[in-house]
Design brief:
Blueprint (H helix, E strand, L loop, with lengths): L6 H28 L3 H6 L11 H9 L2 H32 L3 H13 L4 H14 L6 H24 L4 H9 L4 H12 L1 H17 L2 H6 L8 H6 L9 H22 L1 H10 L4
Helix pairs in contact: 1-13, 3-13, 4-7, 4-10, 5-7, 7-10, 7-14, 8-9, 10-13, 10-14
Length: about 280
């Protein structure tokens, strides 16, 4: 059956389409300028390329040492997000099911930390990393991501756990499951929508982050993709013909990842918005 459009519905959909095109316009500029010579980028950045200069991508691949930067970004993102999702889910589950005064205070402290601007703790955090001897290491960067990402993850998991019926866990305990078994075999699979939401959101954050890696990782061989791309922007020169292809190479994996898993974001947040 064909959908009947009223004047108001048609106008709303046209407006939404125009807004969608507006949000997609940066990707257009990024791609078309990534295959232009430097002179054409400077003279007319909005036009379609006269000649597609794919050599820009090979130069960016070599100059950024892309395989090494990609490996660093991938390793830091996967380890950080995996540990963050596991620890935060376990912490939130314990806080909900063991509603002691200590757990309530701890949860309130975690929530309160979400309103603290990162700039106010940036230098003390860097000093802590230096004191622990974790500067210029992936472990130091992963540790900081865990500390900064845990409050939001615990908050989202906390709301979701409240929607899980306690009777299911009690039945599993009667059948002989231990506390750990109940969590990993019963609760964690039921938390899958929120788990995927946490994974997607934090992957986007960690993969695209520039500030924290720039503070902790100074050695060239430790560079992530954002750090490797920023090397093309100096005080007097901006190598757009190389930087733009490097940006395309850097964002392509995370965009594909997001497109495959985006439905879990709305599903997980909606499922976690329960009272209790």
């Amino acid at each position: 059956m064909l959908k009947r459009y009223t004047g108001r519905t048609l106008a709303a959909e046209i407006i939404m389409a125009l807004i969608g095109l507006l949000f997609l316009s940066p990707f257009y500029f990024l791609f078309v300028n990534s295959v232009k010579p430097f002179g054409e980028i400077m003279s007319d950045s909005a036009s379609w390329p006269k000649i597609f200069q794919w050599e820009n991508y090979s130069r960016a691949w070599e100059l950024t040492q892309f395989p090494q930067a990609f490996t660093n970004s991938l390793m830091i993102t996967v380890v950080s997000v995996a540990i963050l999702a596991l620890i935060s889910s376990m912490a939130a589950y314990r806080m909900v099911r063991s509603n002691t005064w200590f757990n309530r205070v701890l949860f309130m402290l975690l929530i309160a930390s979400m309103v603290i601007p990162f700039q106010t703790i940036m230098m003390p955090l860097l000093r802590v990393v230096n004191e622990l001897g974790l500067n210029n290491t992936r472990a130091g960067l992963i540790m900081t991501y865990l500390g900064l990402g845990a409050p939001m993850a615990v908050f989202l998991f906390h709301g979701f756990v409240k929607s899980i019926p306690l009777e299911i866990e009690e039945a599993a305990t009667v059948d002989g499951c231990t506390g750990i078994s109940v969590f990993f075999r019963i609760v964690l699979p039921m938390m899958r929508p929120m788990l995927m939401t946490i994974i997607v959101l934090n992957c986007l954050w960690v993969w695209n982050d520039y500030l924290l890696p720039s503070l902790i990782l100074q050695r060239p061989e430790m560079r992530t993709i954002p750090l490797a791309t920023f090397a093309f922007f100096g005080q007097y020169t901006k190598q757009w013909d190389i930087a733009l292809p490097a940006l395309v190479l850097g964002i392509a994996p995370i965009v594909v990842f997001f497109l495959f898993l985006q439905r879990y974001i709305v599903e997980g947040i909606a499922a976690g918005s329960v009272k209790g």
